[in-house]
Amino acid sequence: AQSVTQLGSHVSVSEGALVLLRCNYSSSVPPYLFWYVQYPNQGLQLLLKYTTGATLVKGINGFEAEFKKSETSFHLTKPSAHMSDAAEYFCAVTPRGYSTLTFGKGTMLLVSP
Amino acid sequence: DGGITQSPKYLFRKEGQNVTLSCEQNLNHDAMYWYRQDPGQGLRLIYYSQIVNDFQKGDIAEGYSVSREKKESFPLTVTSAQKNPTAFYLCASSITGEGSGYTFGSGTRLTVV
Prior knowledge:
heterodimer, A: mainly beta, globular, B: mainly beta, seven-stranded mixed beta sheet, four-stranded antiparallel beta sheet, 11 strands
């Protein structure tokens, strides 16, 4: 079985500061990894995904994530936070050969002026 | 534009009633999914379907039922057997094939009154 752990249910940063949201996973086979963003009372929007190839993945809105197999991690970063980044972020995993995603419990990003 | 439409956006149910949540997609995706979202719990899989007239239980299927009579439609019925139905329900779809990720609808918020 696979699982996802997101460290920190809430992360607070100042506008312009580095954003780091942590995600660790467990999977019995090599995984596909995803980050999604959710604004209040809306569905989830895909930020980026890792399937194969380059371990540093760039996504929308300036976000990127690095797949580190040795650390079983897929942390999400953005060099400079913007007020519009305030939302909830979900990390998800699916082992290769499977079709359903397993989600973490989410991290709420708070951005202060 | 292609996408997933969930209706209604807000739904109120009296205890003991069954209610059906609608999910329609025009993305020509084969697979469709229902997730339940509760604060601090992330997303939990209720049911999924990879092909018309076939579906599988997810992690929390008890008290729910689904049908997949058309490729475009995957309605979810919350039955009176579901003891704690108040939640945000999200429908998603994906192409078959690994690593494709999901496209989400905007969700239905169900409240028991």
